[in-house]
Amino acid sequence: MNVTLIARSTYLEAIRDRVLAGVIAAGVALLLVTLIARPLAMGEGTRVTIDLGLSSITFLGLLVVLMVGTSLVAKEIERRTIFNLLSRPIARPVYLVGKWAGLSAALWTVAAVLGLALWTLLAALGHAGAALSIAEAVYLAGLELTVVTSIAVMFSALSTPVLSSLYTLGLFVVGQWSDDLRRFAADAPAGMRGLFEACANLVPNLSLFNMRSLAASGEATSVLHLGVATGYALLYCACMMALAAAAFESRDFK
User: What is the pTM of this model?
Assistant: First the structure.
């Protein structure tokens, strides 16, 4: 019950934040800009609209995580409201999980709104049949943002908002290239191969959540892909929350 209350409070706080409204407005504006650029796309206007629309969900969601998620704990400490919360019978891991769940729910809301705006635009252009591929791509983008949020909450439990943002952004960038890192590890000298393989396995495999090219072609992905991506996201988030809880338990706020 405590997790639900904290998650609900965090969700409502995030939804009321002007950052979220600005992100949604920026996403819709970007979709409208693609209409202006369609004549320059040499017949690939629909593909460009889908690709930019889905990319905006990921990158604007990342912006919310960096601006809101990495300061979740620090803001509570600065306002000193965390002392009131933790003086109640609320375990510290429960507090962190509630924060992660609330912000993740807010990001799913952003992804759903922007995904619906993208499909509405495509339907107006006569491409309503792309609904399934758009829905799948938005679902995977939501999973990706949930994973990135767990990383941000983990760092926010350990460090300052600025450093948390840098660490989260760094892992996001490396996670986008995790497949290339594995290929590089396979070709690396024997002495370094183990190190690169370990790095490739520890960073989040965010390329697993990217089906923008497939959706831009109007193709849907497989149920197996969606299932594997869902299982991987849940497992990675559980690991991040476990690390965050272990660090947060020993943190002294005085």
Answer: 0.88
